[in-house]
Each structure stands twice: as C-alpha cells, then as structure tokens.
Design brief:
Blueprint lengths: L1 H15 L6 E5 L1 H4 L4 E9 L18 E7 L8 E2 L6 E2 L10 E16 L5 E4 L16 E3 L2 E5 L5 E8 L12 E7 L1 H7 L4 E7 L14 E5 L22 E2 L4 E2 L1 H17 L7 E6 L12 E2 L3 E2 H16 L9 E6 L1 H12 L7 E4 L22 E3 L4 E3 L1 E4 L5 E4 H12 L8 H9 L21 H11 L1 H16 L3 E6 L7 H11 L10 E5 L14 H4 L3 H4 L1 H11 L14
Parallel strand pairs: 1-10, 13-16, 13-19, 19-20, 20-25, 25-26
Antiparallel strand pairs: 1-4, 2-3, 2-6, 3-5, 6-7, 6-8, 6-9, 8-10, 11-12, 12-16, 14-15, 17-18, 21-22, 23-24
Helix pairs in contact: 6-10
Length: about 575
C-alpha cells in the first residue's frame, strides 16, 4: 500500500513538473566561420521599436536576457540553448510570463589570450568599437522574430546577421588620429595591442613650427572621434526630440551649437593655444582601462604615461614635461584624472576630477567593502533590505545594487566578461584568480564580500587611502593639483566617496593639499564644477571650463622661459 501511494505521488509530481522548452540556434554558414568559443545570449523584449540587444539595462523596462558559454563550436552544427542558465531581470525561465515577445539570439565571440604570467584566458576582443558587445564587429545575431511564449513550446532561431567593421575617422585640419602599438601591453597580452588617440591641434599649427604647447588629457569612455568640436553651424531643421536624461527637447541642436561655439573660441586670436587628446584604450574587459596598471588588464598606466603621451608630444610639439600636462574628465574619466595624478604625481601638473567613480572604497557607491559583509543587502535581526544602486535628483530609486550586478552576471557569466561597469571595476582592482580571471570582490549572485580581495583593492586602488597612507611622500608633489567636483545627488551615490576624501584633504598639512572640492546642489551625474549652468550644458564644456585654473597653475609652476615657448599668459 505504501509503495502504491509513493508511486501515485511520484506520478502527480511528474505530471506537475514544468516541461523545459527547447531553443535550437542555427547559424548562416558564411557567418559560422571563425566562431569557436563565445557566449550565447537569448533575449526577449516586449517592444518591437528597439532590438532586444539594445534594450538590456539597469532600468525596470529592461529586456530579458539569459546567457550560456560555449567552447569548441564546429561550423555546421546547431546550438541548443540551456534554459537552466541564469537570467535577468527574471532569474528563472519558468517565471517569464506567457505572452508575445520579440526574441533574438546573439553570439559574443571569445578569443584565446596567452597572457604574461602563464595564464590562458578566453575573452571578447575590442574591434575599435569600444568593447560594446552589442556593437562589436564580427559578433553575429538573429533578426528579431515575434513569438508567443507559453513556457513550454520550443523555438527555432536562425542567426543571419553580422556586425560590420567600424569606419575609422579621417584626419581634418584640426583633428588628427593616432594608432600606436604599445610594447608594454603587447608583451602582457601575448599579441599586438594598440592604443589610439584623437588629437585636437591649436589654430595655425603648421604656420608656427617653433611653437610648443601644453597637453590636456581628457579621460573618459571610448571616443569614436574627438567630441564636442564642429567647424560648421548646427544642422538646419533638426527634429527637436525629447531627451529623457535631461528632461528637455532639442538637445541634439544644443550639442551641435556648443561644439560650434567651441570651434569659434578655438580659432579666435585671443584664445590660449594647447593640445587636447582623447585616448582610446579599450581592452577585453571594457571600453576603458582606467589608465592604471592592473594585474588583469595590464600596464595601461605606464603604457599611456610613458609610451603614448611622449609619442604624441613628440609628433605634435607638446612641451613634453610633467609641468605642462593636465588631466580632466568625468565619471570614469574623473576617477582616471585623479588616479593618474596620484599614481604619477610628477608626470602631471593638475587634475580636474568630475563626478569620479568611487575614490574611497568605504563608499563604493553604497557599499563599504571593508565593513559590510554583503554588497546587496542590509541585514538586520528581523528584516533584510536591498541596497540601493541608482537614483534621480529627488532620491527616487530606479535600481538596486543586486539588479545591476545580476544584469552583468546574465550577460557575461562568472568570469568578469560582461563588458560592463561592475565587471570592469573588478577587473581593474582585483588580483588575478587561480583560473586567470579576476578574483571576485563579492559573489556575483549572493553579494557576499571577500575581505582578502577588499584589502587588495584598498592597498592598490583606494585613492583616498593611498593619499592618506603616503601623504608624507606624495604631498609635496600633489600640492595645488587636486580639484574634485560632484553633484550632491549623483545618480550612483559617487558624492559619498568625495565627502570622505574631502574630509582627509582638509586635514592635510606639510603641505596642505591646496586644491578644491565643490558640490552641485541637487545636481545629478555628472556635475563638473559650474553652478551657473545646468548639467546638460556644462558637460559639453570640459575643454574650456578649467582653463583659468590651468593658466594660474602654469604661471605659478612653469620654468622662467615658458612664455617663450608659446602659451600666452596674462601676468
């Protein structure tokens, strides 16, 4: 009787168990060549106006994505998608509501790197698009197709599209483009690695061969060309579309007008002459290297400071000395501007760091990696609360830290390969793990923090801690060079680390740091120091807004013969 009851219960459970759907992925034969290893993404989206590959985000409107790694694919075979893999925003496929969706399959190709140190890893490769998986030339995908999802029926998807190569920009009278092989990075990655730069030259550069110029290094995300510079007036009849980020209409016209205004200033006879460069340093982990030496990403700090910048200065008549170099940028670029100033204190004469990524890891956005046990949750005796990750200027929260990290887990898996923000922080700051990939700062699924990794971050990349630890050695070379600006309602809570850093800077002595820290009232990401203009304007004026401070710094620190080498200063 007991046996019969058990068999009946087993039958009931089996009948109620969900049927795992199948997804068969085939690839157009001419697109299958060259595919061996990679990550297969399956995407669902509710809106036909946007391709699923472009609709994955931190926001509540994100498309659904699930991902699985594959190796040793053989052309001509099909791929079977594993629905047991992790998904975002919905973790388990069984919870995806029934309904009509636009579905798309996408393959992120991986290549093998035999890195210095003996590690062999498989990673996506930047193709001069800035390591953006949805736009990387050579990646393949299917044309979106509409399906009725019931959680049981299978779906057949045919990959029939490939992303074409990037069209690289052409030189103009004022803007030149550099592609430079780095010996340091090539040795590290075991293959030829190139750095790029867009170079803005001063007026009458060719007419004045005896002039030499200060160098302004603008850090930021991968630029396809030099931004914010336009030699013609704004286009006529621009459609005044709505910009959700800034809540205004006609922002494209504003951008074009600002770019044209900058050009007019640039060529005016009373405007100071200098060289501006925007660096391209995408890598297998992200669109940007963070401009420092990293165990996982490589010696980008040395490559940029000692290889690329001297090469540009020699080719375009830069003064070529540390007192004539200044760094600035916002967000990622803000962190880089301060980091290279701290890591190479004599090679740069000032940094202007706007809305920098966390510069004190006691406030790694909303996580204290040294004291908190979990990055995702605030844990109490009777309740657990999700830790917030993103807000607007009113404090309204749109994403949690867990959401943002789970998105990257679905896109890139457990080996730091999503190409997104939290993964690159981990790649830059972490030691190399035994498998050759970055050692996680926390478990990407659960959020549990690894304190050993946190200590490595602290000793090597916590900029406030490094300055405080080494001020007796660094202080004299950083005096007057540090300028930090941040909105007090930064979307990613980056102002919290700035507060902590300011607290240290104001206590410095012998010498006192002698720079400035300013906050924008109710300003979001990325406020950069001008309280008289809205954020959407000042973000377009990086190349002019710090010039008065730079001029003063040059007057105070330049050699006595500096004026004879061209930058006209007002005494």
């Amino acid at each position: 009787m007991r046996l019969l009851s058990f068999l009946m219960l087993l039958l009931i459970v089996s009948c109620n168990a969900p049927t795992t759907p199948s997804a068969k992925i085939t690839i157009e034969p001419e697109l299958a060549e060259g595919i061996k290893d990679g990550r297969l993404l399956l995407l669902f989206h509710h809106d036909e106006k946007t391709e699923p590959r472009f609709a994955v985000s931190d926001d509540v409107t994100s498309a659904q994505v699930m991902g699985m790694d594959f190796e040793d694919y053989q052309a001509g075979n099909s791929l079977s998608f594993d629905f047991g893999t992790f998904g975002y925003p919905i973790e388990n496929w069984q919870e995806i509501p029934a309904g009509d969706y636009w579905v798309q399959a996408f393959i992120v190709k991986h290549e093998t790197f035999n890195r210095a140190g003996g590690h062999v890893i498989k990673m996506p490769v930047d193709q001069w698009e800035g390591r953006q998986w949805a736009r990387t030339p050579g990646n393949v995908y299917s044309t979106p197709q509409k399906i009725s999802w019931d959680g049981e029926s299978g779906v057949d998807i045919h990959i029939d599209q490939i992303i074409p190569p990037v069209a690289e920009p052409e030189d103009t009278e004022f803007i030149k483009h550099i592609k430079f092989k780095s010996e340091l990075l090539s040795d590290f990655w075991g293959r030829d690695i190139y750095l790029g730069a867009h170079v803005l030259l001063p007026r009458d550069f060719d007419k004045n061969p005896n002039e030499y110029y200060p160098l302004m290094i603008y850090h930021g995300h991968f630029p396809s060309d030099f931004g914010g510079f336009r030699t013609t007036p704004p286009d006529e009849n621009i459609e005044e579309t709505y910009n959700a980020r800034f809540n205004i209409y006609g922002y494209e016209k504003i951008e074009q007008q600002e770019a044209y205004d900058f050009y007019q200033k640039w060529i005016s006879p009373d405007f100071k002459k200098f060289i501006v460069i925007e660096i391209q340093h995408a890598n297998p982990f992200y669109d940007d290297s963070y401009a420092v030496n990293s165990q996982n990403i490589g010696p980008y700090g040395d490559a940029i400071t000692y290889e690329l910048i001297p090469h540009i200065e020699e080719q375009f008549r830069g003064i070529g000395e540390g007192w004539a170099r200044f760094t600035y940028g916002g967000s990622t670029g803000g962190w880089e501007a301060l980091a290279v100033q701290v890591m190479y204190p004599k090679e740069y004469n000032g940094c202007f760091a706007a809305c920098p990524d966390p510069i004190d890891f006691r406030a790694f956005t909303t996580v204290n990696i040294y004291e908190d046990q979990n990055a995702y949750y605030l844990n109490g005796p009777f309740r657990t609360t999700d830790r917030v990750g993103k807000r607007n200027y009113l404090g309204h929260v749109s994403a949690m830290v867990k959401d943002m990290n789970h998105k990257e887990l679905a896109l890139g898996g457990t080996k730091t390969r999503s190409g997104d923000q939290w993964d690159v922080w981990q790649a830059v700051y972490s030691p190399v793990g035994e498998d050759g990939y970055p050692k996680p700062i926390w478990d990407r699924y659960s959020g549990e923090i690894d304190k050993e990794v946190a200590n490595h971050w602290k000793e090597n990349f916590d900029l406030r801690y490094i300055m405080e630890r080494d001020w007796s050695k660094l202080g004299k070379d950083l005096e007057g060079k540090i300028h930090i600006y941040c909105g007090d309602m930064d979307n990613y809570y980056l102002n919290n680390a700035v507060y902590l850093t300011e607290e240290f800077l104001e206590k410095t002595s012998e010498p006192y740091y002698g720079g400035e820290v300013k906050y924008g009232d109710r300003a979001e990401h990325c406020w950069n120091g001008d309280p008289t203009q809205p954020n959407y304007i000042t973000r377009l004026r990086y190349n002019t807004m710090y010039l008065d401070k730079i001029g003063k710094r040059l007057e105070e620190t330049a050699p006595s013969n500096f004026n004879q080498k061209t930058w006209t200063l007002t005494k």
